[in-house]
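Entry for the shared binder. Reason: the reviewer on the internal report wants the predicted structure included alongside the sequence.
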Amino acid sequence: MGGTNPAHAVALAVLRERAVTPILGERNELSGTDWLALLAKLAPFEEWRSNKTEASVEALGPSARAPDPWQRRRRKPSPASSPGTRLSRPRSRRSRTCAELLLYKRDLYLLCTNFVNFRDFYDAGEPAIFQAGTLYLDQRSCTLTLPVEDAGRHAAMAALAGSYLAYCECERKELG
C-alpha cells in the first residue's frame, strides 16, 4: 500500500484486515482475478444484506450506531437528513432517547452498588461515587466525606443521624 492515497489508507487497511487476508490470504497486491474472487466470496453476504428487513435500531440511522468506515466514505448526506431540517428532528430525539437508555443500562449496576446495597462504600477498594474524598481532622482521616451544598438545610436532617458531623468549608490554596 505504498502508493495509496492517504485519504483511503484507513479504508484499505480495514478491507485488507477484514476481507482480503481471511478470504484470500496475506497479499500485498490484488489482481483483477483476485478482486473478482473476493467479490464472488462476498456475494452471498451482499444478497442477504439487500434482502434483510430493517431492525428497530437501524431505523435510528447510522449516527446511533458505531461508525463504519465503509459507510462513512460511500454515503453522501441528503438535504433531508442535514442538521437543522424538520425531518431530522424526530431521528435526533429517538437517538437521544436510545442513548439515554443505553447509558441507564450501563450505569444501573454502578448506581445499585453505590446507593442500594452500598457495596462500594463498605469495600476497602475504590471509594463510592458519593464520596468526595478524605478529610483530615486532628491527625485522623475521615473517608466518608460528602459534599453538602447548603449546611443550614442539611443540619435539620443531620440531627436524626445519631452521629457526629463536621461541616467544613474547603478552599483550594492559590499557588503563587
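Summary line for the report: The chain is about 45% helix and 5% strand.
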